[in-house]
Design goal:
elongated, 2% strand, mainly alpha, 162 residues
Length: 162
């Protein structure tokens, strides 16, 4: 009877170890599959996302260079830029995400901020709130253009190496 109890205990310990090893192995497989999915998405969708970002940024630049600008139109373009950058952030490798996060932070901050697009609005709102001026919006355009150029060049380099 004691021998049967010992065999049962050892089988229980062996089963526990086997379960732990299986869980670790499953996590490693999940990570490998996730890495492959990211590489496939990066290779297939990056050009499309960059083209969408380039078009949205172009429309945004036309809008902020107009003489009379509507705050709602600017917010709409900022939201489109924010959404596109979020999509890009999901597929680009971790080493390329820093600049993307910086642009995303800037666009999100401007979207949620108070727009002061005329000189009169800036003078009255300057001391009350943090505001977003037309110059800030132009800097955002420049930073997004730099992001597009960087990601395009990195994709070209990766295609050459592959």
């Amino acid at each position: 009877m004691n021998l049967l109890s010992d065999i049962g205990s050892w089988c229980s310990i062996f089963g526990l170890l086997l379960s732990v090893v299986t869980i670790i192995y499953a996590q490693l497989i999940k990570k490998s599959v996730s890495d492959i999915q990211h590489r496939v998405l990066y290779n297939i969708r990056l050009r499309e996302y960059l083209e969408n970002l380039r078009n949205a940024n172009y429309e945004y630049s036309i809008l902020i260079n107009k003489d009379s600008v509507d705050n709602n139109e600017i917010r709409e373009k900022l939201k489109i830029l924010e959404t596109t950058i979020k999509l890009l952030l999901k597929i680009i490798p971790k080493d390329q995400q820093r600049m993307c996060r910086k642009c995303l932070y800037r666009v999100s901050k401007q979207y949620s901020g108070r727009l002061a697009l005329t000189k009169k609005e800036m003078d009255t709102k300057k001391w009350l709130f943090s505001y977003v001026s037309i110059d800030d919006l132009k800097i955002t355009y420049i930073e997004i253009s730099a992001l597009i150029t960087t990601l395009t060049n990195l994709k070209i380099d990766k295609d050459i190496i592959s």
